[in-house]
Amino acid sequence: MKATGRFVLLVIMVALVLVACTPQTPAAPIELRVLTHDSFAASEEVIRAFEQENNVKLTFLPSGDTGSALNQAILTKNAPLADVFYGVDNTFLSRALKEEIFEPYNSPLLAQIEDAFKLDPQNRALPVDYGDVCINYDKAYFAEKNLPLPQSLADLTKPEYKGLLVVENPATSSPGLAFLMATIAAFGEDGYLDFWRQLKANGVVVVNDWETAYYTNFSASSGRGPQPMVVSYGSSPPAEVIFAEQPLEEAPTASLVGENMCFRQIEFVGILKGTQQRALAEKFVDFMLDVRFQEDLPLQMFVFPVNRNAQLPEEFVRYAQIPAKPATLDPALIAEKREAWIEAWTQVVLR
Amino acid sequence: MLTVENIHKHYEGKPLLRGVSFEVGAGETVCLLGASGSGKSTLLRIIAGLEEAESGRVLWEGHDLRGVPVHERRFGLMFQDYALFPHRSVAQNVAFGLRMQNLPPAQIEQRVQEVLRRVNLNQFADRRVTDLSGGEQQRVALARALAPRPRLLMLDEPLGALDRALREELGQFLREVLHESGVPAIYVTHDQEEAFMIADRLILLHEGRVAQDGSPSRVVQQPASVWVARFLGLTNLLPGRVVNRQPLTVQTEIGVFCPVDCAEPPALNEAVTLLIRPGGLTGASADEQFNTFTAEVRDVIFRGEGYRLTLASGGHNLSFHVPQALPAGWQGRLAVQPEALWCLRQGEHNGDD
Amino acid sequence: MNFFSTAPAARRSPEGQPPASAIWQALALWLAPLAFLIIFFFVPLGSILSVSARGLITDGLSPAAAERLGRALGFTFYQAALSTLLTVLVGLPGAYVFARFDFPAKRLLRLLSTLPFILPTVVVAAAFNALIGPRGWFNLLAMEWLNLPAPPFNLLNSLAAILLAHVFYNTTIILRVVGSAWEQLDPRLEAAARVLGASPWRAFREVTLPLLRPSLLAAALLVFLFDFTSFGVILLLGGARYATLEVEIYIQALHLLNLPLAGLLSLVQLLCTLLLTVVYTRVASRLNIPLTPRLHGEGAAAPVSLRQKLLVGGVVLVLFTLLVLPLTALAARSVARLEPARGQRGGFESGLTLDYYRELFVNRRGSLFYVPPIEAARNSLLYAGLTVGISLALGLPAAAALSRRSPLNRLLDPLLMLPLGASAVTLGLGFILTFNRPPLEARSFPLLIPIAHSLVAFPFVVRTLTPVLNSIPLNLRQAAAVLGASPLRVWLEVDLPILARAALVAAIFSFTISLGEFGATSFLARPEYPTLPVAIFRFISQPGGLNYGQALAMSTLLLLVCGLGIALLERVRLPEERSL
């Protein structure tokens, strides 16, 4: 019986100790809060430098994937969680603009950015980086089988590629959605469903998320799956080199970058409406668009900088392919049709 | 009918049963008597088939029961604390064994009524067993065990959990029911009073063996060993030596006793233990050569029909039942009747203490 | 005294209205758990649902949306029922073997069988892939031995994979909950039935099963609810063709930004949970049978006969294959290098390596979000410890209140299970919406994460404790009260010691739920305090062999941390066993 008492006491004490040990946030000079998605990454050195120069403490709030982070920004727009929101992309952009969560900011650094990236004329959302969702292929597989590479999306329906492609569900995955957009851009709103019907007949494998597609189904990843082609990013081949188990001379994978085969995702940053730190927020947006941060981007998040003055790291120069003519769609059209496209796709491919 | 042959069993690495053999005849109630932990319950479980002996056999009417599963042995077992099914009513508990025989419902109903009436519980049929008192639960357990008409009934300390008055009353009741039903029964207890009340025959278990097997009166009159004597509450035990075989004469520290009765005659000069039964004390005349001793009265307790005297003599404590008391502190010579003497040999089976 | 009198003695308080003081006592016990549920569950849930309702009222429900809902609802029930059935079929023999037999490595197997519960689905997918995937070693061995051109097992992306994963995750609930009840069940009841002529199967069906039914039902309900709200397993292992309500909610809320439909789906899911719980409560109250509690370990013996040995061996083998093998495959893969030889597809240059573990300790890219493994483990343990504390502190009074007869219980009991049926996505958004400003600001109040974990753990704690509390005979408590113990003392001296085993089970579940939870954490996590699952996700969301290896290494660390935690929890109780 005494032991019971001791047990209870122990539990209480452990709980108390744990409470006492919970680290407290140290007081910061001025706090600037950045709402972002879970994939956000940056070098500590770069961030600390910004903090010191501006006597600011940056707090990042990773809030799930792009959709859930945007959702949180929208749900709390009357009492914003943060001062700046980074991570909304061109497939979600119209939604963010429609909900009016951003304040416009005409950053001087916009001058260093190609106009093609600036999708919001009012500059409420400012482009930061881009990446191309492309089909990655297993180089060894194609070499071994002596199989020619598909030259267009239409080629994928040919019998020699039967069962060789794994894609993500556009309803649950951001690259999956981007790839669907690429097919819509390539075949038009009238033709894309036919293409998917043929693709389905040709044994396309659909999974729900990038992790499963890449690590379970893709044959060139560590998962060693059955499909030698996967919908991934143009930056995945350099990542395979950088994160190789043993130093590699050559990437085991490459991207198919033919015309309209890739869809370009552009990520934006914006100052959240109602911020108390407008001046600091502007400085941070400038910082994100400036060369130092832009050059840090590729190796942290595996995306490409939009600032034309930023230099790419060597691995990117060597292994990343940038499609000359990526597929693009008008954000307004995306905003209007996104759900209908996904629904129609679901009916055709999954049911 | 039931034959138990040379049963061996270990429990947690220690020998528990070391060659137990006995028989139970038709209509006979046999009491297995022994200290707690002597393996009585285990023996019942082996007979029931709930446990397997490491060696030895259990036979029913000459047929080895090895390989016959528990539920096909048609033995009844009344568990210590009864093990009534808490999710079933009194009647459902009693009907359980009958249902297992796939009898027609009407017949089951009739038999349940009959048995419940026999144990005076017919009013309780629909009650939850968890709402019953200990005595009532005991009777439900008895009814449940009897209902399927077992070939043999085993009862494991059935009165153990009850208070004294209830024990007396239920003991009588059990005795009646057992004799009336004519079922051979094995009754396990650690309480000798209870055993005397119920048993046609006593089997005393000690250190994994049968220490004695016989009628209650015989076991009390002629215990087979010092342990049996002690276990039955016969405490007047004196170490002695055989000084004459014909008639058997035993010399002890407090005097010489003759003639002494015994089961098998010891050798001359053999070290033996002399038992003086508590009823045999008389006064002594000064010139008697045998069966007298000097003692001091230590304690006198009134016992209803008489007194119990506790005497000190030569460093030994002896106690006797007498019709008339001596005052405490009295000193003098006393004698015992020769019929009260019993000689115990100290063979290997008697090695106690 | 005439004991043959047929007049029933009053041994229980007569059925009927409890005295007013009992209601106040019950209310006092309910106070903390209810306040907790209201603040941290009903308010956030209500806030998000009201936002959705507004949208639904203005826009209405499209036929396509109604069809989606119907389809998801049907599939959710179908797969949950099937999964629960399979889990019970696998778990029940296991519970029996754990309760009635002693065998080598029993404790270890019990500990290992708890570990699947904590694994993030991403990692389970990787583990299954390593085992039964197209290039997993089941397939590799089969191809080698049977000389097959293609992998014979193709389980991934199928209903079979979903069922397998659900069994993998939830068998431990049956093992623990039913196992502990079985251990306390007097083995003589079954023996009595056998002596009365019941075959082993019949004795099980007529005696053991009815007596186990309360815990079996409680465990099955928990399993069902877990399967019912299953999310990661369906999403990652089932492939794109299957969607449960929870998956639909996730798609609608976070990808299509259709909050009204997501809210409606959440509401349907909640109502189903409520309905199930109400039915369960009705059934369970009829089954409630007081049993004399037995001490732990009594009745467990080494298997003797050949049949018993075969049974124990078989059950252990099945549990090992199903629950331990994938974990082993995972751990093995985290120290094995499977680099393909240059230019040759499929060839392996295998070897052992600790590179992945070494790499965990290096912040190679100088990232701001680098997670040192020790710190992640510390944070995870911290949150898990707090979750155990909070959920037990709230669960014990709630279970105590439930075990009293009070009109309040009928009303409140089903509400307790609701957190299990709430969509993590919806609740997460509700948290963001509600805990938006100080002092309960989601982002700066570190207790919010263990609180969110406790919400999930709380129904578990209550469900595990209540059947055991109900089985304590009233007279034990009355005996203590007559001996001069105050109600609190009675509870501490009578109920608690008997509860200790169930409390341990509850603590282990709370602990594992917290360690493995990723849903709530991903909404509320603060980058300063990353947990192990968050760290695993960081690795596996980027390409590259090293990332994959590190994710597996981190998962193995998570397994180790959890295993150690459970072993420690089990140890805390040991002196108790001796003193009882």
TrEMBL record, chain B:
E.C. number(s) listed in UniProt: 7.6.2.9
Signal peptide annotation: none
Top EC class of this enzyme: translocase
Keyword Ion transport appears in the UniProt entry: yes
A single cellular component GO annotation: membrane
Keyword Iron: yes
Keywords carried by this UniProt record: ATP-binding, Cell membrane, Ion transport, Iron, Iron transport, Membrane, Nucleotide-binding, Transport
InterPro entries: AAA+_ATPase, ABC_SmlMolc_Importer, ABC_transporter-like_ATP-bd, ABC_transporter-like_CS, ABC_transpr_FbpC, Mo/tungstate-bd_C_term_dom, P-loop_NTPase
A molecular-function term among this protein's GO annotations: ATP binding
Gene3D superfamilies listed in its UniProt record: P-loop containing nucleotide triphosphate hydrolases
Protein name, entry field: ABC-type quaternary amine transporter
Organism: Bellilinea caldifistulae
